[in-house]
Specification:
The chain is built from four helices and seven strands. The chain has about 140 residues and is of the alpha/beta class. It has one domain: Response regulator (Rossmann fold). Strands 4-3-5-6-7 form a five-stranded parallel sheet, sandwiched between helices. Strand 1 and strand 2 form a beta hairpin.
Length: about 140
C-alpha cells in the first residue's frame, strides 16, 4: 500500500520534479483505510501533486525522514497519539508544512492542524482544501 518511491525525480531543493520539468507540491497522505487512501491519492495525482501514501506509522515516519512535504493529510483512522507524533515531526522538519486532519466522530488534540475536515468529505472537497492550504503556504513564504 505504501508508495514510498513516487514516479517523480528528487531535486536538490528536496522537491520532486514532474516528468515535464515543472515543480509540484509534495503531499504525504497517511491513513489506515486502503480504499479511501487510494481514492484520495488518485484525485491528488490527477491534479498534478506528487503523493506519497503511508498506511502504517513506521512508513509515515520514514517518509518524513526521507522527504520534505508541503502538505500532509492525516486521516482519522490514524490513532490520535500517532497522528500527533507525525504532525509534530512534520512541523519540526518544516514549520511551513500545512497539515490537514480529518475527523469522524470527535475532534481532539488537533492544535497542530492547519485545517480540519470531516472524513466524509469528498475527494474533490479535500482537493479544494489542499489547494487553499498550499496557496496560503505560498503567500506566507512570499512575505
Amino acid at each position: 500500500m505504501d508508495s514510498g518511491s513516487p514516479s517523480r525525480l528528487l531535486t536538490a531543493r528536496g522537491r520532486w520534479e514532474a516528468i515535464t520539468g515543472g515543480i509540484v507540491a509534495n503531499i504525504l497522505l497517511v491513513g489506515y483505510i486502503a480504499e479511501l487512501l487510494q481514492e484520495r491519492e488518485r484525485t491528488l495525482r490527477a491534479a498534478g501533486y506528487a503523493v506519497i501514501m503511508a498506511s502504517t506509522f513506521p512508513s509515515a515516519s520514514a517518509a518524513i525522514q526521507r522527504h520534505k512535504f508541503d502538505l500532509a493529510i492525516l486521516s482519522f483512522s490514524v490513532p490520535e497519539a500517532d497522528r500527533n507524533l507525525l504532525a509534530r515531526a512534520l512541523k519540526d522538519t518544516d514549520p511551513n508544512t500545512k497539515i490537514l486532519m480529518t475527523y469522524y466522530a470527535s475532534v481532539r488534540n488537533t492544535e497542530l492542524a492547519d485545517a480540519l475536515m470531516h472524513n466524509n468529505a469528498s475527494s474533490e472537497e479535500i482537493l479544494r482544501a489542499v489547494n487553499h492550504l498550499l496557496n496560503v503556504r505560498d503567500q506566507d513564504q512570499a512575505g
